[in-house]
Amino acid sequence: MVVGIIGLGLIGGSMAIDLRRRGFADEIIGVEAEPVNAAAALKIGLVDRVTDLKECALESDVVIVAVPVGAATRLIPEVLDCFSSVSDAGAGCAKVVMDVCSTKEQLAAAVKSHPLRSRYVASHPMAGTEYSGPWAALSGLFDGQACIICDAEESSPEAVGAVERIYDTLNMRMIYMNSSSHDVHTAYVSHISHITSFALALTVLEKEKDEKHIFDLASGGFSSTVRLAKSSADMWTPILSQNKENILHVMDTYIEKMNAFRQAIEQEDEEAIRNLIAESNRIRRIIR
Question: Nearest-CA neighbor of 86 among 73, 97, 75?
């Protein structure tokens, strides 16, 4: 099995490590626009070689697109175009392209009319850290985490099966839904978390201008809450832009809850504060 990975950062690099170590990939071909990252990925052994997109698509059995979603919207149709040029293209094409992006509706629209749409599988492994680049890649990142496969009915059973084998190798549990539902759910469980972390970091940095000891006093609770603010702007800017409508709805609800806390605190209404906290404690039933 030859696996091509476009984008050799945290997600692409971590997939490369375990797909090789666990026997799925015999060879891994990389595509990386940033020369420093490409050199690093080669040096630390994430990939066997680095090439261009066309050669990667032509020589790989499975191509994993692990770049920011704005670039993926352009690159996935290009990979499918490359598939069309090989001798077994059309109904008999055995190649597969998949993505690992955090939004799906615009990707789905970008490939909807492509003749080889069935060779594309939309997926989103719900795993990661706040770090980026090939140096951030690590084994076991995906173990036990959820992976969403979107619009499976639009992909051929063989293509979906190949992607399922990849996520089985990575020890992920799979959930199936359409692109629209995916984008709504990720707005709630992922995207708003990053926005609130970015906002909290900006708030504390503003205060820190006057109070130099604020970070000396920061505890583990603060660090865990604000760690997502270290996430890459290049990755998160297109996510927030592409999932705008869902994110704005979640932000409105979040602001409403913040205002409820603000009003209760301003009025020194301890009963209201207690009720809000108790209501929020229901999250224990979902997250342990």
Answer: 97
Could you tell me the CA-to-CA distances from 128 to 95, 112, 287 in Å, in that order?
27, 28, 18
Determine the Cα–Cα distance for residues 158 and 150; give it in Å rounded to an integer: 15
* Lookup: tokens for 277: 């906290």
CATH number given to 2-178: 3.40.50.720
Q: What is the distance between the alpha carbons of residues 44 and 88, in angstroms, rounded to a whole number?
A: 34
Whole-number Å distance between alpha carbons of 112 and 73:
12
Entry pTM: 0.89
Which of 222, 230, 175 has its CA nearest to residue 198? 230
Structure tokens belonging to residue 198: 């970015």
The candidate with the shortest Cα–Cα distance to 145, out of 120, 123, 161, is 123
Edge-to-edge strand ranges of the sheet holding 62-65: 49-50, 27-31, 2-6, 62-65, 96-99, 120-125, 146-150, 173-177
Tokens of 38: 């490409």
**pLDDT tens by residue, 198-219:** 999 898 888 776 666 666 666 6
* pLDDT, tens only, 111-144: 999 999 999 999 999 998 888 899 999 999 999 9
> What is the CATH superfamily name and number for domain 182-285?
6-phosphogluconate dehydrogenase C-terminal like domain (1.10.3660.10)
Could you state, in order of their start, the residue ranges of all structural domains in the chain? 2-178, 182-285
What letter represents residue 149's amino acid?
Answer: I
